Amino acid sequence: MNHYLEYKKRNDLEKKILKYDDSDLKDILIRNKNLIKEFSSLSSSEIDKKIKNINNTTITNLLINNIDISEINSELDKINKYEIKDIVKENFPLDEPRELQLETISKIYDAIEKGYKYIILEAVSGYGKSLIAATLSNIYSEEKSYFLTTTNQLANQYFYDFKKYDFVKMNPRSSFSCKKTPMKCSAYLCKYSKCRYYKYSDFNKDFDKPLSCEYLYSLKEILKSNSIICTYDFFINENFYHSNYFNTRKLLICDEAHNLDEKISESISLKINPKQFTEDMKLNIKKELQHINQNNDYYFYLLKFRTNYKNRLNNVKKGSALYIKLKKRIDDISKFMDNFKNNENMTFEVDSDNYWIFKPLKINKMADDSLLSYGDVSIFMSSSIFDLENFAFDLGIDKNKIYSIRVPNIFDLSKHKVEISPNFDMSGEPIETGTAEDCLPTIKKILKKHKHEKGVIHTFNYEQMKYIVSNIKNNRFITHDSENREKILENFKTSDKPLVLVSPSMNEGIDIPGDLCRFQIIFKLPYLPYENTWINKRKNLYEDGKEWYDYKMLTKLIQSYGRGIRFEEDYCKTYILDNRLFDKINEDLEDKEIIPKYFINSIENLNQNIE
Fold this sequence. Notes:
6-stranded parallel β-sheet, alpha/beta, about 600 residues
């Protein structure tokens, strides 16, 4: 079987189908229901209901998977094509849009006008989802929008791309200086101290800039803008823990939305330094850690910490910086405990700085309170939201109220080939099992083949990154830590040398088009760390936890694959050093069919390695 020809035939039809209205496609499905076993005996209303209840599918997939392509083409030729709206053309930010982009935006616009509250746009990396967001923000400029991203770097990129369309970027509090103290802006100083700068920053009055809090003055000015860009961390944390100045707008546009559950959980996690309590609470940290890990009694420790803060407050001068800080911490712990009232809905971990992190597990209520309620319409954009049912479950939304669009791949697969090494099973920790050592000659061979080109090696963690650069002496390698990631990425982009960026955190949220990335090596399938308590508890929330775990890995894999090709003429070769992917593809083809066909058909050596 020629996978590329099969892909091209299917992809051409998917592009064609997008030009037609969903109601027309549903009529075609009903007229041909005898070709689909599960629909053949159903009435039209029963088919409509069944479509809504089938997980991870669309009318497009039902047609393509069950009806001969020539028959579908014949049916489509009998009806009128989907109409691109004039309002979409008028508000598109570039002079030469792709027709497919205009059709996609028109469908989203129609869904909004029909009253859909939740819209999912699933499109390949490089499709131009930010252009779609900009167009929609322009259309609804009078009713305003928020545009949320995963990283500050992405927020900066979108701001510079679209600032002429009245997009502004809101920076976090730590970007502002405090006029009362030599510290950076911090919410507890504003809220609890008698600060004259805070007083002159009343949101109900005009600000006097010289007398105003720098942060609040900036926030008030930015809230006048039609479209605000900021990170999830800032937006969610501000809404959950601090004074809330954000109002509901027409659009809440969520970029990289496949990470939304993790982003919400991380943003409202409670972080406490236990060293503050070693004397007051007679806290033996090592002993207490053993107890908390054995008994999972997180709520008990939150009570202990809050009680200790209250006791310390009685011995501190009112209005002092320490008094204000303690008051804020008491409020934060109380807020967290009010929303997560039992140990079953919390996890606990210790970070690299030895802070104790109390992290929520189920965030469906918080998703609405701290995020989704700030948009009349929420638009979720990603290249990899595979499991629509669990996505809706995580966010506490009715999946029947979701309008979902999955756009076909726009790129030429011959320019973005994938090669999976059949020799390496990377299950477990490859460094400990010795598999990493076996991979080294293959990595060296790939580096030699692309010796004049820039590339990226995606690792699973920092330990693997360090192993590779320590055991392959190559002056092309460039690495980073958690503090200098953005600086190193910029150095990589601006250098004229054929550098190779070795990193555990470049699988999404970065743009490295053209000559910035001509090859990629994915060292290991990017499964979430199995030993992580949060991951294991999350798995238990689902009917099939293993399936959820696989989906999370596939999401990260497709995101990594998408870093290498960003526009239609672009090209990049991707090498995957983990043969377990063959089994995952085989399982998917037999049952689920959720892995994008463009990715499967890009694999050069697929036929020889699956059943």
